[in-house]
Amino acid sequence: MIALEGIRKAYGRRSVLDGVSLALEPGRITALVGPNGTGKTTLIKVILGLTRPDAGRLLLDGEPVDDDGAYRARIGYAPQAPRLPENLAVGEVFAMLRALRPGAALDERLIEDFGLRGEWQTRVGTLSGGWRQKLSSACAFLFAPDVLLLDEPTAGLDPVSSGLLKAQLRAAREAGRAVLISSHILSELEEIADDIAFLSDGQFRFSGPISGLLEETGMRRLEPAVAALLRGLRVEQGGAPRSRVRA
To answer: Can you give the pTM of this predicted structure?
Structure first.
């Protein structure tokens, strides 16, 4: 579906992505994890075309993407900190998006599931963090995109809303969409993800099925498996191993 090949990105002398490659396959959910500041956000920005890599290429259906960014119409994105027009009402946000894509097929299930119609006249600037997150996720799913990129999608959500989002993600997988989720809540990723890509120091230290990581580390659960992988890297780099990890 969509693939990164040999992506390199540096800011000044600091290398953020060092020749990384990753394929997001249709009908699979990939968890993007790693310590803070290791390039996860930059990688997502490269896929979105918001950051131009220094080397490497981005492919969609096996073909390099066009410079005009038209491929982004096939991607739905929910950022960790949604930035939406503060002066617009919730209903006006969706009306604006529909106006930008007239005639496009719509998937409004999250609008209904999250009860956003009950906030249709509420200004975005007055919404709580949880409601903003619901709005952002509903916007990401709105046009039934082939590829979904979600950065900390359950942050601020109550358990019921989190469950509704997970159900929608499973439905997206069943519909053959490719999904990438960046999150530090490893228990949730273990519940819904098929694959895991562990990014550290600008490189993928593991990329493949979650079952493969469990087998490699000898662990039964994802959190201790990721912790074991990170401890091994720190020992390899001459650092003291730690007992906790945040992805």
So the answer is: 0.88
